[in-house]
Amino acid sequence: MDATGHIEDLGSFISASPSSYHAAAEVARRLGEAGYATLDEAADWREIVRPGARLVLVRDGAVIALALPADAGPATPFRILGAHTDSPTFKLKPRPALSAHGWLQAGVEVYGGPILASWFDRELEFAGRLVDRDGTVHLVRTGPFARIPHLAIHLDREVNSSFAPDKQRDIQPVFGVSGPDVLTHLARLAGLSSAHDVAGFDVMSVDSAAPTRFGADRTLFAAARLDNLSSVHAGVTALLRAGDGRAGDGPVIAVLAAFDHEELGSESRSGAAGPLLSDVLERVSAALGGQREDLVRAIFGSWLLSADAGHAIHPNRGERHDPANRPVVGGGPLLKLNANQRYTTDAVGAALWARTCDKAGVPFQEFVSNNAIPCGSTIGPISATRIGIPTLDVGTPLLSMHSARELCHVDDPAYLSAAAEVFFTGLP
């Protein structure tokens, strides 16, 4: 396992993926360079989806990739790694041009559940997509551009004991005292003459600092959007290494499904609660000559690995964790469990994960929440309910989840990728 090479490539992947739209495009670019053909949703898949095909589909900020073995048939089961491309952040509002007391500002609203304090006093960039009046989509990014400023301690002596930013008043970033407004600047980056040429936009903020290794032995890694680009990247790298998959003596179709809008509940056409994945699986089975009965058989024999970042034990707040299950960074990916099905892992899935990690030669550790602190959830329960596919939840242990900049151990993303490769290529 080349943890150093993997973490360097993860840093490059994160740097290329400041928004969900950029992340989906970067996945498609990498797979395209490896011979994956673009899959058009409007095309007749009976002419495209064949045994041995390598295909990638992008829908807005979501991406699905498929690796079909040479002997794939209509009832061939799927091995799916599910992840998400979005992260908690701020999104540009309509009419985002603001000014106050000589400062130029950008009007934003909260997207998901960011740790608000972590976004102050750091250089942010804006990134996402613009749609012009002809309907053409332009991916844009500003580089370091804006900053949400703290009020100085001299003007708020209680800031260290009562900081609770107002989501409307306090989070509008500044980006200058003269020059074009933010939408005009983005339009020019897209090659458009003015903001008037922009008919629509989905533009997010992201920490602009480069991913970096640090610490006494450089085993710690900090970056924006580790939740959940660490899982998306693990899926891409595993898929590129994997050959034709096998489940026992039969073939399996390896699938990477990276959805958008997980941080909002996944209820969108590009989210896990929408029809995207179920439509793809149904169309693949049909293109291989299958009927409804074949698809049901395929799903019965399939697995979905819901890969989303999880919590490592916090060094200063250990009481917030379960007293017996206390995962650490560097200890391998998490197997996430919850009695109330906020995570989907059951005994069968846990045994599958144990065999997977054993074959991959990587450690893993269980995560369960403190009973007094309800846990979050993932695409796992949504996909299991939506499709009826057996599912388990795993992920890379992090500190500072939902901060503008999160932290992991350099070994854990590589461990997850190695386990995902075994998951894709077959199990004992």
UniProtKB/TrEMBL annotation:
Gene3D superfamilies: Aminopeptidase i, Domain 2, Zn peptidases. Its cofactor is Zn(2+). InterPro entries: Peptidase_M18, Peptidase_M18_dom2. The keyword Protease applies. GO terms for molecular function: aminopeptidase activity. Keywords: Aminopeptidase, Hydrolase, Metal-binding, Metalloprotease, Protease, Zinc. SUPFAM superfamilies: Aminopeptidase/glucanase lid domain, Zn-dependent exopeptidases. Coiled coil: none annotated. It comes from the Bacteria. Its EC number is 3.4.11.-. Belongs to the peptidase M18 family. This is M18 family aminopeptidase.
